Amino acid sequence: MPYKEPKIEKVYYSIGEVAEMFEVNPSLIRYWESQFENINPKKTPGGKRHYMLKDIEQIHLVYHLVKEKGMTLSGAQQKLKDNRNDTESNHVIVKKLQQIKDLLTGMRDEL
Question: pTM to 2 decimals?
């Protein structure tokens, strides 16, 4: 799972930092922003995007649906439209299970 949790929690992250977290190009983040209304970073008067943790979580949800589950953009949009709460809950569960798996794998490797 290429998503890398931010090591230092900040209020705002640049598009480059967010793209690096997901190992994708910034243009993909901008495209998803245009396709999913739940990704709505703050913009400076100069047009720079500032992503908050809530925006990063929404990007992570889209990343999970599109890149990890292999859904099309329209399929992911429909899934979020039809049942956002269940989709978000399932994503949180998968994320926690992945963290547990990583922890256990690390423990096994140390033994």
Answer: 0.75
